[in-house]
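Appendix C reproduces, verbatim, an entry submitted by the partner laboratory led by Prof. M.T., so that reviewers can inspect both the input and the predicted structure.
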Amino acid sequence: MLNIKGLVSFMILHVDMDAFYASVEELDNPQLKGCCVIVGGLSERGVVATANYEARKFGVHSAMPLFQARRNCPDAVFLSPRISRYKDVSLHIMRILGEYSPTVEPLSIDEAYVDVGGCQRLFGSAGDIALLIKQRIKEEIGLTCSLGVAPNKFLAKIASDMHKPDGLTIIKAEDVLYFIESLPVRKVPGVGNKTEDKLRLMGINTLGDVRKYDEKRLIKKLGSFGKRLSEFSQGVDRSVVVPDSETKSVSAEETLARNTADKEILKKIIMMQADKISRELRMLGKKGRTITIKIKDSDFRQITRSVTLREATQASAMIAGEALRLIDQQQMPRKTRLIGVTVSNLKDASEAVQLDIFENARLRDLHQKKLDDAVDEIKERFGKDAITRASFKDPG
């Protein structure tokens, strides 16, 4: 194992999905292939969440106002985000990563660190594991990702961005100091526009420049980040990959296209949200006891109402039923702009169910679980739209 000023042989992977939201939309609708696809809020106040690489050629990027994206790329297909769908895909990705290491740190819905130290005997080198991950995600999901492999987190993250899309960049320990010598400081995590401007005034443009700069002066000008930047310039990052903390809750919410006072519309949305939450709970192997509804009105006032069950559930009918009761009890003098459901107070689904006087309710819950599992299997085999609960459909 080669050591250079605290470096260890490369064991950290940074996995970054390519144009994730837009790529999922292309996956679900192959007719979008080759088109400029922009995902984001569709109102005049909306911003771009993700643009595919075709749209990026026209200067469209994340956080750009939608009106500007339309001006840059008027022929693009503009889509509203489907967060629940993206979360389903993300869970599949994270499960794949977890098969190659117990130490996975999700950073967001579409990127994660993986510490593969100690996993080489099972799967080969860090580079071999990176290739296996790319292959699994491509074959099982149909998406591409870019990976960086390096001795530490900050270098792995920089590496993953170097050859997008569908890239793989490996920075070996013996190459680190050469690599960072000419690395622009703007590429360093934590260096924003203001810090970059300040560093430029100090005559610092690369990490190689940082390494030549007096550390005490750097700390005086930049505070604690100066110390961290100095360590980066030596190729050192002391942060470790922290496995994802246990899931505390599962939720779904929707900002309505138009504010509404119609409770029947809200109830239909709640039932769909309950179905999504139920499916995610089953994927996580969890049940929950506390069900909460969240309502934000047209004046942006927010209320929450909760109920805690005697026994935990993951059944969509139970979650929907309790959420619907909560909304029925709620006075709503103003129109609603956002509605959401959360299930919390989670436990492992495998834990024994306590027998009590509510035995019939427990049996109904088990029956519902079998129905939900059957629905999951049909959707997995034939697509997410292959089956829909009748209560979700408009009458007529």
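The two ends are 69 Å apart (CA to CA). Additional entries are available on request from the coordinating office.
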